[in-house]
Amino acid sequence: MRNALGSVDTVLLLGGRSEIGLAIVERLVRDGARRVVLAARGAAGGTPPVIGDAEVHLVDFDAARPETHGEVIETAAKLVGDLDVVIPAFGVLGSQAAYDADPVAAAEAVAVNYGGHVSAGLSAARRLREQGHGTLVVLSSVAGVRVRRANFVYGSAKAGLDGFAQGLGDALHGSGARVMVVRPGFVVGRMTEGMSPAPMSSTPGEVADAVIAGLRSGAETVWVPGRLRWVFAVTRLLPRAIWRRMPR
Amino acid sequence: MTFLTGWGRTAPTPARLTRPRSAEEIAELVRRAPARGVAARGLGRSYGDAAQNAGGLVCDCTGLDTWSIDETTGLVTAGAGVSLHDLMAALVPRGWFVPVTPGTRHVTVGGAVAADVHGKNHHVDSSFGAHLRSLTLVTASGETRTVTPDRSGGDDGGDGGDLFWATVGGMGLTGVITEAVFRCVPIETSRVRVDVERTRDLDQTLETMAATDDRYRYTVAWIDLLARGGRMGRSVLTRGDHAARDELPRGADPLAFNPGPVLKAPPWAPNGLLNPVTVRAFNEAWYAKSRPATGLIQGIAPFFHPLDGVDGWNRVYGSRGFVQYQFAVPFGQEATLRRIVARLSAEGVVSFLTVLKRFGPGTPGMLSFPIPGWTLALDIPAGRRGLARLLRGFDDQVAEAGGRIYLAKDSRTSAATVAAMYPRLDEWRRVRDEVDPAGVFRSDLARRLLL
């Protein structure tokens, strides 16, 4: 249960090796979370990482197999009880050039970045609705706020995910369960290794800090860094003729 | 679905709320309990999440509101939903008083049992559970059982005592309490004869209470937590006894019970209305106003329940609500109490009403809070930065000292902390698991603390 001061007891991380996801989990544990489930491909049977003094469970999870997602949520709830925070943090970036050359790979990436989140998100939502409490943290991206020609396959999947998360949040309104949409800019980390950072980039730790602050305050939307909210309020309005000339 | 919170107005969760009117109706509800379980609720005065049940069923028991008294013995048989306010309004004019009243009259008998509440007379009269003759509860199987404090009594023969003492202080998790029988005390008047003293610091407060508390039936100390340095822990002691008839002015109705006009707190207050500036000003004024006096004659309401004079005072803390932190440490562990008061004073923690009380003997309730020693209770706005860490630090010190925090007031501690503070938790779990093997009785508090 989330307590009066915003600390939680349990966390489920789908995409249990995600840098951002683990950074969030570490902070939740530091703030009092005691039971953690890390779900990732081929995770079961491995040695759980040490995260503070929390009890950590490993569970198999394949983002590309939506038919298994409901069961993963149930397994996690059996292991740790009510799920206070669920973080689907799986995803692939990929380059637009590579997707242009390989449409099948592009479709597979979208299936994970969007489709996987739909099945995982709906499965988690069903559980949270039954519980009458809990927060689904959806890691969207500014790439989906206005899709750019430089990465429109990835961006369009994030656009879909962002819309899905908003709709799901509205659907859960009044149930006690909540959805928090997180929109980071460019995140300097493993996923973006070798790329030159865009302006107003952040680190996985900074994203995690913003998520924690958002969970405490009960925010519906979190931008990282916060000033991207205002930047995108403007860029959303730019004419197409200008937008398509964006260098990246 | 209805969103419910405790008195601190933090962490709301939705539940299906129902208001049964009889034990039979409750039994039927329990037999058809939903997967998320059943929690009992009274007047919602627990500060945290004890009477909430996210996604499940919450039984508002205030419909069990019938009671009777045997005036030859003072034994009261009351439905779980009867409030102490209603009892006092009817009993005081007839010359009877409840054996124990907490700082508010607006609690139900069921809640008083489930939290094993204490009052200003704990040092001589112990807590509510000590005055019970029997309890009736609907257990997980849907049967109605009457249990007594001793092992020989009860309608189930031998093991009555265990279920009784698991229920007293058991936070409603052994079953839905439907009725209680307890002995009231005779009074000559509805007034209290009060002595007021001021102390200059914490040491003098503790010394005075230890030396002279036993001369009074009712005692409490209000601490000015914002006083620092040499004045740290300065207090106002108010101590008294039921006044005798000949102590009242001539012509006064000796047993009149008029709680007085009730002010209404504004429906909304900004977060941060209670801040170091406003609370320091209040504390200064309160300390200055509380002039030493002896033999003051006060009514029951202003003496026992000053906050009941303001309806909805909990809203003054703003939309974020507040947490109440109440702990007890055994005698001999005054150093822990001093350290915590010093830290609160140094941090400038804003607590509107900080109360210190000397506890006497506890009850055999397995999860009952009071132990012989000192208890300190404070209210803190929930939005304060660093509050979680500060209170976790206090938890550790209190557990280390062999003390505990009060479950009826808790809204933020951890399962491990409670396990460290309540040595009889496993014994309580065994009794509970036997009477409710499937975990029908659940609350948000139970989930949070893995009870």
TrEMBL record, chain A:
Keywords, alphabetical: Oxidoreductase
E.C. numbers: 1.1.1.333
Cross-referenced InterPro entries: NAD(P)-bd_dom_sf, Sc_DH/Rdtase_CS, SDR_fam
Record-level Gene Ontology MF annotations: oxidoreductase activity
Entry keyword annotation includes Cell membrane: no
PROSITE patterns per the UniProt record, alphabetical: ADH_SHORT
Family statement: Belongs to the short-chain dehydrogenases/reductases (SDR) family.
PANTHER family: 5-KETO-D-GLUCONATE 5-REDUCTASE, DECAPRENYLPHOSPHORYL-2-KETO-BETA-D-ERYTHRO-PENTOSE REDUCTASE
Name of the protein described by the UniProt record: Decaprenylphospho-beta-D-erythro-pentofuranosid-2-ulose 2-reductase
Source organism of the structure: Streptosporangium sandarakinum
From TrEMBL, chain B:
Gene3D superfamilies linked to this entry: 3.30.465.10, Uridine Diphospho-n-acetylenolpyruvylglucosamine Reductase, domain 2, Vanillyl-alcohol Oxidase, Chain A, domain 4
GO MF entry, a single one: D-arabinono-1,4-lactone oxidase activity
Family annotation (PROSITE patterns): FAD_PCMH
EC number: 1.1.98.3
Ranges where the FAD-binding PCMH-type domain occurs: 10-187
InterPro entries linked: ALO_C, FAD-bd_PCMH, FAD-bd_PCMH-like_sf, FAD-bd_PCMH_sub1, FAD-bd_PCMH_sub2, FAD_lactone_oxidase-like, Oxid_FAD_bind_N, Vanillyl_alc_oxidase_C-sub2
Oxidoreductase in keyword set: yes
Keywords: Oxidoreductase
GO cellular component, one term: membrane
Any matching Pfam family: FAD_binding_4
Family annotation (SUPFAM superfamilies): FAD-binding/transporter-associated domain-like (SSF56176)
Protein's UniProt name: Decaprenylphospho-beta-D-ribofuranose 2-oxidase
Source species of the chain: Streptosporangium sandarakinum
Lineage: Bacteria, Bacillati, Actinomycetota, Actinomycetes, Streptosporangiales
